[in-house]
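User: Here's a structure from my thesis project, written as structure tokens. My advisor, Dr. K., wants to see whether a designed sequence matches the one we expressed. Can you design one independently, without my sequence as a hint?
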């Protein structure tokens, strides 16, 4: 059933699908957003990087140009000074030059003459006619060479600066100064792209013009070689280039210097360039991932809340919150869901607890609640695969899966056996159930099945020996019969078809009649006798019993008066009062009128009120008993022992006689019942109430009762109910 209920009331397939679809769409949107963001971010970061490379390149070009200009100015100043002096003392010039060199940190200084002899401040004279940079120096006005390795420089690289010195218009010689290349590039900012970029100052052929400090770096050298081999990557003017070297993509920015044909090339691996972009996009990705998880989590949370709320609502509607099983609503839904082919394999069983009201009254409501819980518990234990519902109050419906009647009985007996075992073991208060069973058939409506099962149950209600009854078609006939009787009643009453039969009550010690009970018999015009067991339930249901009891009392009073007139020794007669009266005490005025008008001694009339009437709260029983007593009549408690009123009820209501129910008398021989009888006899004596045994059929019963002190009896052993004539005979015989 859980499965079915889940399908019916669980999160519907539609909800699940739309939830999954929602999540998927949400997922793809997230991916899309992420992707476009990623691209954007990459673009932005790349543009930013390129921008910053360009900016830094410009700054670096500035720095290098300034360093060069600075050297140029120094050399120019020195040359101009020489021109002004027009000195030809080369030794003095070289000495002055040496001071200047050390002051301004030139690597070397000297004079180049037209014979291409380079006289250094160190006193050395070198023939440089073969050296390109010197040739260029001689040819040009101001000149700065590419980096080269000076003869004594070891690993060092220098740039050569030269200026002509003219005396008049004629160039006398040239001042030459070399300067360490790394010092020219020293001011350059090399921190671009986290220090991963390289700078080259190149000429258009791809030769390095100024070596930086880090020129021995392998990658630098490799790149330098590459650029040297492929000078075509060098643009004609400032611009960018992408190229591949050593399997890696490079980005290069070229910035033209105003010196020679030099460029500043700023070069960086693309992967390094994107490292920042990747870092940022990674951050964005993680952030979005977290956001995504949060949103999905929130969606789940909300959905769970909705689901739980839904479930709660469904529980409220379909579940019995107290017993935690399905209720009548659930039964209806469940019934609709059972596949029709399973119908013949199910027995619809409705049951309730006999006299549950009394049970509650006597043991308290808490015990009553526990009994309900206990029943659910037992069904779960014993018939776990069958379907139990609380239909309403103490009415349960259980759909028992069974192939045939035998299997049903097996299952039902298992439950009943468990009940009686637990009762015997004192685990639960004694109780009985009455169940009506109706096998389900394809095409039956729930209402039909239910009403049939109820009918079946009605046939055994209150019959302790039988706890379940199967529906059969006769029940319907019986029901028809009820309806027939109901419609016949008025006519039968008018036709005087209801007769009073008298069942004498005896004093067992003396064997004498002490009174009689008036019992109704319906003798139809064709002579058939209908017994109260058949018509009383019908008339009680239709409330026609009120008129019948009235008629019976009238007849009894009249007949007593007649017997008295005929000189008979009239005995006390008891008349039954249906519990139906007790619901509205209008009968009391009628009783008063009938008794007084008849002229019968009220003390000779007693009214039997059934014990079970005591539990109906609405009944002003006390009021009724007092009224009848004031009238002078007696009141007997009928069927004592069927109910569960116990001694309390005896003490608190002023009954004159207790009629011990036949079921007790039948139980004589059973030790436990005997002890109950004995204590009841003792109790009644103690309370000063007479006690009468009903339904005495055997001598041993009479003997036992006498032995225990109960002297009054009514039963077939002494006499069955007899017609008025016969009763008169019995009275006559006694006197
Ligand atoms: P009750 O008041 O308990 O009446 C006793 C019933 O037990 C009578 O059944 C009587 O025939 C039966 N009985 C007496 N002695 C024995 C015995 O030794 N063995 C057996 N097996 N039965 C015995 P009856 O007359 O069929 O009445 C059945 C019930 O119908 C009565 O039970 C009473 O509750 C009700 N009843 C009968 N007449 C009237 C009436 O006029 N008005 C009302 N309201 N109820 C009536
Ligand atoms: Ca009675
Ligand atoms: Ca009785």
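Assistant: Designed independently from the structure alone:
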């Amino acid at each position: 059933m859980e499965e079915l209920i889940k399908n019916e009331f669980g999160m519907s397939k539609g909800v699940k699908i739309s939830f999954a679809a929602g999540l998927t769409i949400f997922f793809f949107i997230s991916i899309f957003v992420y992707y476009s963001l990623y691209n954007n971010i990459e673009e932005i970061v790349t543009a930013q990087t390129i921008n910053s490379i360009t900016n830094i390149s410009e700054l670096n070009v500035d720095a290098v140009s300034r360093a060069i200009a600075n050297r140029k100015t120094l050399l120019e100043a020195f040359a101009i000074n020489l021109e002004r002096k027009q000195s030809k003392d080369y030794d003095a010039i070289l000495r002055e030059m040496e001071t200047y060199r050390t002051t301004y940190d030139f690597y070397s200084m000297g004079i180049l003459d037209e014979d291409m002899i380079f006289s250094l401040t160190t006193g050395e004279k070198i023939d440089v006619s073969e050296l390109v940079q010197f040739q260029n120096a001689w040819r040009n006005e101001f000149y700065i060479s590419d980096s080269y390795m000076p003869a004594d420089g070891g690993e060092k690289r220098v740039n050569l600066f030269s200026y002509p010195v003219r005396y008049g218009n004629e160039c006398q010689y040239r001042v030459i100064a070399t300067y360490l290349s790394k010092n020219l590039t020293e001011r350059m900012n090399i921190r671009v792209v986290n220090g991963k970029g390289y700078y080259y100052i190149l000429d258009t052929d791809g030769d390095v013009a100024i070596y930086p400090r880090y020129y021995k770096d392998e990658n630098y050298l490799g790149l330098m070689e590459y650029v040297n081999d492929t000078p075509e990557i060098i643009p004609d003017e400032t611009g960018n280039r992408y190229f591949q070297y050593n399997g890696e993509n490079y980005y290069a920015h070229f910035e033209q210097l105003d010196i020679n044909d030099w460029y500043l090339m700023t070069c960086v691996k693309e992967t390094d360039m994107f490292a920042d972009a990747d870092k940022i996009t990674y951050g964005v990705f993680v952030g979005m991932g977290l956001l995504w998880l949060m949103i999905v989590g929130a969606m789940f949370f909300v959905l769970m809340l909705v689901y739980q709320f839904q479930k709660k609502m469904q529980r409220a509607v379909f579940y019995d919150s107290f017993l935690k099983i399905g209720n009548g609503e659930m039964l209806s839904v469940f019934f609709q869901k059972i596949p029709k082919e399973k119908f013949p394999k199910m027995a619809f069983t409705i049951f309730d607890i006999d006299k549950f009201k009394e049970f509650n009254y006597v043991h308290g409501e808490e015990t009553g609640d526990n009994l309900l819980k206990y029943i659910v518990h037992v069904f779960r234990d014993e018939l776990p695969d069958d379907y139990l519902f609380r239909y309403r109050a103490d009415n349960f419906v259980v759909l028992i899966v069974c192939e045939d009647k035998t299997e049903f009985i097996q299952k039902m007996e298992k439950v009943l056996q468990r009940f009686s075992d637990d009762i015997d073991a004192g685990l639960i208060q004694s109780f009985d159930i009455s169940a009506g069973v109706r096998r389900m058939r394809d095409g039956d409506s729930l209402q039909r099945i239910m009403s049939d099962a109820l009918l079946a149950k009605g046939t055994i209600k209150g019959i302790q020996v039988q706890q379940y009854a199967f529906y059969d078609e006769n029940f319907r006939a019986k029901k028809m019969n009820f309806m027939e009787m109901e419609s016949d009643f008025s006519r039968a009453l008018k036709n005087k078809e209801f007769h009073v039969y008298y069942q004498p009550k005896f004093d067992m010690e003396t064997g004498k009649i002490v009174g009689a009970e008036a019992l109704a018999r319906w003798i139809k015009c064709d002579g058939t006798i209908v017994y109260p067991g058949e018509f009383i339930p019908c008339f009680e249901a239709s409330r026609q019993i009120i008129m019948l009891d009235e008629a019976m009392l009238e007849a009894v009073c009249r007949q007593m008066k007649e017997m008295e007139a005929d000189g008979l020794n009239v005995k006390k007669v008891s008349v039954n009062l249906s519990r139906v009266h007790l619901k509205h005490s209008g009968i009391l005025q009628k009783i008063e009128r009938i008794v007084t008008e008849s002229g019968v001694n009220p003390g000779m009339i007693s009214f039997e009120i059934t014990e079970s009437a005591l539990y109906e709260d609405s009944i002003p029983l006390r009021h009724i008993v007092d009224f009848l007593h004031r009238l002078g009549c007696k009141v007997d408690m009928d069927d004592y022992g069927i109910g569960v009123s116990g001694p309390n009820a005896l003490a608190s209501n002023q009954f004159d006689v207790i009629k011990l129910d036949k079921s007790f008398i039948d139980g004589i021989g059973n030790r436990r019942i005997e002890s109950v009888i004995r204590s009841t006899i003792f109790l009644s004596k103690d309370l000063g109430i007479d006690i009468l045994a009903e339904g005495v059929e055997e001598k041993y019963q009479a003997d036992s009762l006498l032995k225990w002190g109960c002297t009054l009896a009514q039963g077939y052993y002494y006499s069955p109910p007899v017609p008025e004539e016969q009763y008169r005979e019995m009275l006559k015989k006694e006197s």
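When you compare it with your expressed construct, this may help: The mean pLDDT is 88.
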